[in-house]
Design brief:
9 helices, 9 strands, binds pyridoxal-5'-phosphate, alpha/beta, Aspartate Aminotransferase, domain 2, 12% strand
Length: 275
Amino acid sequence: MTALSPAREIDAFNVVHDFEAALCEYAGAPYAVTTTSCTMALLLAVAWHTRNLGHEGGMISSWFERPEIEIPKRTYVSVPMSIIHAGGLPTFRDEDWRGLYKLEPLPVWDCARWFTSRMFEGYAPNDGSWVSFTQSPRMQCLSFHWSKTLGLGQGGAILHDNEEADRWLRQARFDGRLEAVSPAEQQELYGFNVLGFHCYMSPETAAQGLLRLGNLPRHNEPLPNDPYPDLSSMELFKRTTRSAVGSRANRGDMAWPSNSNQSSSRSATVTTPPT
Ligand SMILES: Cc1ncc(COP(=O)(O)O)c(C=O)c1O
């Protein structure tokens, strides 16, 4: 019997790549980048679009520089949080959505409650017709949480059609590293150029996903919406509206926008939301 190959040859990303290829085939998408959740898929998708807005290696340093990104007021609470973490300001609209909705004005869709074949090409609204997506490039964010259609425990993915974004998203989900490259090698050979996140899918989840996807029906209806509370009425998100954080004329800074209930001397130094 031969000895096991060095760890580098047992590449844990192989099964992840196999699952991503299977997702592309099922959904009709050119590229799929898996993550630990839809929340993180949305964060990466927004971060791709905001990455050049800031200074100092991709950080948007001032609240007043942040772009507004609009979502329905009734959706899962992690979505506006991801927008904030990715450098945006969430705003809210009234929308009775089903299955998917758009993060306006970005070409990014939250598809956490919908997973069916050919979904990257278009969708069938309630009247049974077929609506093709025409906007390109575009990104669709999926959830593989246990309560969703593919049900893998935790997991997510970005379906998309942009080769340059694909390279960035893969590094961004893996702490700014290239796959199978150690942090020391990354530093020595390539440098760290992407301000990354720690949200790559585990090989176990990808293996489970491959098995389940093989048995999933081609057609799956959107899941009914949860009873989401109105996010626009939450104090936390009122503090990150354009009027609360100020405009360029009313300069902001890196501190978390002040809560009107806090004294100004305290809020000036707060960098995380007070509980
Ligand atoms: C509409 C919507 N978006 C995003 C999410 C977040 O998905 P995940 O749990 O995979 O992060 C959910 C979760 O239920 C959701 O309902």
